[in-house]
Specification:
Blueprint: E1 3-11, E2 20-23, H1 26-29, E3 35-39, H2 50-65, E4 72-76, E5 80-85, E6 90-97, H3 112-115, E7 133-139, E8 145-152, H4 158-172, H5 200-204
Parallel strand pairs: 6-7
Antiparallel strand pairs: 1-6, 2-5, 3-8, 4-5, 7-8
Helix pairs in contact: 2-4
């Protein structure tokens, strides 16, 4: 299988967003600065080339709400990380492959053909310049598509990532946002004295946190 990269874009929020810094929780500080890849496969969903513009436009709208993903990490005193909210944007790549989806076979992370469907990330780039989100949209000869996402684990865990994918999909379908993300992480921050004291109510309230 041959995957050809056709276009690259830097996608930014479609509207102005809050400008400042977001502290990472103590748990976030312990994660390696790596991106976790996820890919989805969809058979032919439209007969024209509008899928790329839909992905690009809806991603830009989603970043208005999930604005930390459009930012960059930076070191504080060389030992702690925080998110610098400067709206640098995320990377979207359009790619094509020379096979049909049914030719792909059983998925395996050890198969270089499957790995080529994921965004390729250069970790030699300084962390202050490394995007937190990469997206690669690969088109198959049969019309199927494979949108693959690589998201920084320091910024979002699995549940938060799935929340983003779900809301992004809603916007792509022309639907309104259902659950807005919650960005305030101060309750998870350690301090002397403690920033917040744990109470039973914390464990009883169901909320969607990003």
């Amino acid at each position: 299988m041959k995957v050809s990269l056709k276009n690259h874009w830097v996608v930014k929020p479609s509207e102005p967003t809050w400008n400042g810094t977001v502290s990472l929780s103590e748990t976030d500080q312990t994660y390696s600065v790596v991106h976790v890849p996820t890919t989805y496969y969809y058979r032919l969903i439209c007969q024209d080339n509008s899928v790329t513009s839909i992905i690009k436009s809806s991603l830009s709208k989603a970043l208005v709400h999930f604005y930390p993903l459009a930012r960059r990490l930076r070191w504080i005193d060389g030992s702690r990380l925080e998110i610098d909210c400067d709206a640098s944007g995320v990377v979207l790549t359009e790619a094509e492959t020379d096979i049909k989806l049914d030719d792909l076979g059983r998925f395996s992370l050890s198969d270089p053909d499957h790995i080529s469907l994921f965004p390729q990330i250069d970790y030699t780039v300084p962390i202050s310049q490394l995007p937190l989100l990469f997206v690669q949209l690969t088109k198959f000869q049969c019309g199927a598509i494979a949108p693959s996402v690589a998201m920084s684990h320091a910024v979002a865990d699995g549940q938060s990532a799935l929340h983003f994918y779900s809301e992004w999909a809603r916007l792509a379908r022309g639907e309104p946002l259902m659950f807005a993300p919650f960005h305030d992480r101060k309750v998870l921050r350690a301090g002397e004295p403690a920033v917040a004291s744990p109470t039973l109510s914390i464990y009883c309230i169901i909320h969607h946190q990003f």
